[in-house]
Amino acid sequence: MSFPVQNLIVQKRTAKRKAGPLDAPVALYNPDGTPFTGSGSTSLADGAVTGAKIAAKAVTRDKIADGVLPAAASTSTAGLVKKSAAVSTLASNATLEQVVAAYNDLVAKGKAAGFLS
Predict the structure, then answer these.
(1) pTM for this structure?
(2) What domain count does the chain have?
């Protein structure tokens, strides 16, 4: 009979977070059955995501598994869009020319942000 694997998250204890009555002590083991010591290689395999690669902008959308990042928005697919530049409000007594100019500004900024086409 096998038991389901329970995933545990290892966190460092801080002064703000002390052990409580529901915190269970656990023994950690490697897949080969040897005790986990917490030591060993901390480097990731070639091609893995690392802080240095993120900082160097080497991790791009095409290198990340499908479904991890939302796609760009389209007319048929929900997705991410950029925040638009600020749009100023109109005075309550704005002229038609001012309304048209504000509308055109709104459309231009929406297109630039990618939520209008």
Answers:
(1) 0.39
(2) 1
